Amino acid sequence: MAASTHDNPDVSIEKPRPTLEELKERKRKSRQPVGGCRETITVSMGPQHPSTHGVFRAELDLDGEIIVNARPEIGNLHRGVEKLAEYRTYHQFIPVTDRLDYISSFAMNHAYCEAVEKLMGVEVPPRARYIRTLAHELTRIANHLLWLGVHVMDLGAQTFFLITFRDREYILDLFEMLCGARLTHSYARIGGVSKDLPEDFDRRCREVVDFMPKRLVEYENLIKSNRIFLKRTVGVGIFTSEDCATWRITGPSLRAAGVERDLRKDEPYAAYDEVDFEVAVEYNADVYDRFLVRMKEVRESCSIVRQCLDKMPEGEYLARDAAHVLPLKKNVMSDAASMVQDFVHVFHGPRIPEGEVYRAVEVPKGEMGVYISSDGGPKPQRLHLATPTFYHCQAVPPLFEGETLADSVGIFGSVDVVLGDSDR
Amino acid sequence: MIEFVFLVVKAVLFLAVGVGMVPFLIYFERKFAGFFQTRVGPTYAGPGGVLQSFGDMAKLLSKEDLTPAWADGPIFRLAPYILFVPPFIAMTLIPFGPMGVDIFGYKVDMVIANFDAGLIMFLALSSIAVYGVVLGGWSSNNRWSLLGSLRSGAQMISYEIAMGLSLVGMIIMAGSLSLVDIVNQQAGNFWDWFWLPQLVGFTIFFVSAIAELNRGPFDLPEAEQELVAGYMTEYTGMRWGMYMMGEYVSMVVVSAIIATLYLGGWRAPLEVLGFIPGFIWLIGKVLAIIFLLMWIRWTVPRYRYNQLMDIGWKVFLPLALVNLVATAVIVSVI
């Protein structure tokens, strides 16, 4: 099974595409029946458990190794982010969004800025749109690399994590060039991005995205030729498209269930309608297919980054819109109008029309929705973030029921969670 | 009298080697892990970090010795010893040179205990060690520990049988249960050793030994990602350290047993190399096997509980039986 894919990892293991009914049947078979009266023990998995990806906690009722019932507890990392937004101007909230999904913080900045721009009606210059697309895809690569390492570590292989972590460093280096920060980027601004592409970025970035697919081949060889990995993932944790719809599971896990839903294609933002890419879809809805989808996505992301670099338009990287957008930092000390603009935005905040807006973008973990209700003031009246991890965590009971304790860890990891994202 | 002196000297030497190897094995494990993971491992303590394990041990010794209020105190305190002591006893069974070597005019056997049923003794001792795990997990009164010890018990039962049966083929060929005799039967070059005719038995024994040692990919009783630390969750300080050390001593013993049973024990791989003393070859073989064990641990993911059972009962047990019957038939025909 594994040997045939060794030479050409682009070709996934050929499996006939199952129908929804077949998948349901497979799901039923792959899980142990949990009905009936049995004696169970209750264990508290988390918040200090090593593989809950942060401070997630679930109470599990175990019948031996089988999980009979799971009760997730969300909110151990609650920091009141949505309330914080009501006390900050629209500009000041951007660094807070970094702390949501800190693995892919640019995606968070981006999602927030897209929503605010829609509310304000700011036109983002083309160069900024391309830079955002590029940075967003780099984030996606970094996120999926980290996911892969952690996921394989959840299954018990310690070494793989270090390998993907090392390759993620190259992406972080690129971000360091872009904005000076490696983890909490705060790179997006309302109306554009904070800095232009630095010198030499083009070459360095091309190097990384040319090198990354080669590394992927290596990962895939390591994983696809590993019988234990296949045994632990193929046909495990099946979650059909129906279940995903019921529990609002989005992103790669939904696409692994055969649903071709990707907001980058369906509701394009930034420059996604100007670049050419395919939506990665797999059909078996198991843990293994979630891995395949993510690997395809990383390849697509590399291609998108390359296209963005090729097509990168000249021009402004921040919109010239004095009412809504901060001035260019370099002009603040030399240009009177910019200085006034800076004062107004820092001390008062941007001028916002009354109204409400909802904008969803495809962040690496799924669909991230931002809802803003404005009363016309410089601060949001109410801001709500529909972050993917929150929904992934609420789906824990149906994901875990009837699975073994050992698999629950892998399944929970496979839908991709980061608790900063869930507990706002 | 002089025999007794030699016996004491041998025992002290063996104990010293056994205990003394542990810090270095931990150091090697960390260095190898670093090597496999493209990092450097410990570097600060001593030249190249060799003193790291001693520093760790000093830290563990200085830690508070906690017994949880809800634990079953006496058993909780006893359990690490049950795991820690048997490997040292098993170590006495391993021959590390020929019998009757001439030292200062005295004939000395290069083994501490030459039992007629040495192999049975080894199996018995390795079975006792699992009590340390099961009792430790049970007496901690923690549910993760309990799950870990349950897994350990089940794993033990399913692997011990295949392990024992895989040895029977080798016993038929050697015609003895004494480890000294088994090594003597393997005289000659490396293709005369038992690993070649008993390839199936050797493979089963090797894999079962990994399961016996609770090392990856069969480290289910202490599966960090699933059970926090399994049966060791409630242990702190040197009691935890004893579990760790016991694991490494077992590793030395099991590797030495594998080397003795299937890889010619203290014998040189080629007869022309026989001038090099036997214990050097034995230590070399043990280190090579330990390296292999570390390699496996740091490379592969972990099996799931039921998959492990499947391998034990549905693959290894029938294979070991077939191997046993085939060996019996071939030996009786030839």
Tell me about this structure.
The complex is a heterodimer of chains A (424) and B (334). By secondary structure, chain A is mainly α. Chain A has one domain (81-415): Cytochrome-c3 Hydrogenase, chain B (Orthogonal Bundle). Helices cover 46% and strands 11% of the residues of chain A. In chain A, the strands form three sheets. Chain A has a three-stranded antiparallel sheet with strand order 1-2-3. Chain A has a three-stranded antiparallel sheet with strand order 6-7-8. The longest helix of chain A has 29 residues, at 126-154. Chain B is mostly helical and 334 residues long. Chain B has one domain. In chain B, 65% of the residues lie in helices and 2% in strands. Chain B contains eleven helices and two strands. In chain B, a hairpin with a 2-residue loop joins strand 1 (101-103) and strand 2. In chain B, helix 4 (118-139) packs antiparallel against helix 5 and helix 5 (143-174) packs antiparallel against helix 7 (199-212). Chain B is globular, with a radius of gyration of 20 Å. The mean pLDDT of chain B is 82. Classes of the chains: A mainly alpha (424), B mainly alpha (334). The A-B interface holds A 41-43, 49-51, 62, 64-65, 152-159, 162-163, 166, 226, 228-229, 231-232, 404-407, 409 and B 33, 36-39, 143-144, 146-147, 150, 216-217, 219-220, 223-228, 297-307.
Question: What's the structural blueprint in terms of helices and strands?
Answer:
The complex is a heterodimer of chains A (424) and B (334).
Chain A lengths: L19 H11 L10 E5 L11 E7 L2 E8 L7 H5 L8 H5 L6 H16 L5 H29 L4 H21 L8 E2 L2 E2 L7 H24 L2 H7 L7 H7 L4 H4 L7 H4 L20 H25 L24 H13 L6 E9 L2 E9 L7 E5 L1 H7 L1 H5 L4 H10 L4 H4 L2
Antiparallel strand pairs in A: 1-2, 2-3, 4-5, 6-7, 7-8
Chain B lengths: L1 H35 L15 H10 L11 H19 L9 E3 L2 E3 L9 H22 L3 H32 L4 H7 L13 H14 L11 H4 L9 H26 L15 H20 L7 H29 L1
Antiparallel strand pairs in B: 1-2
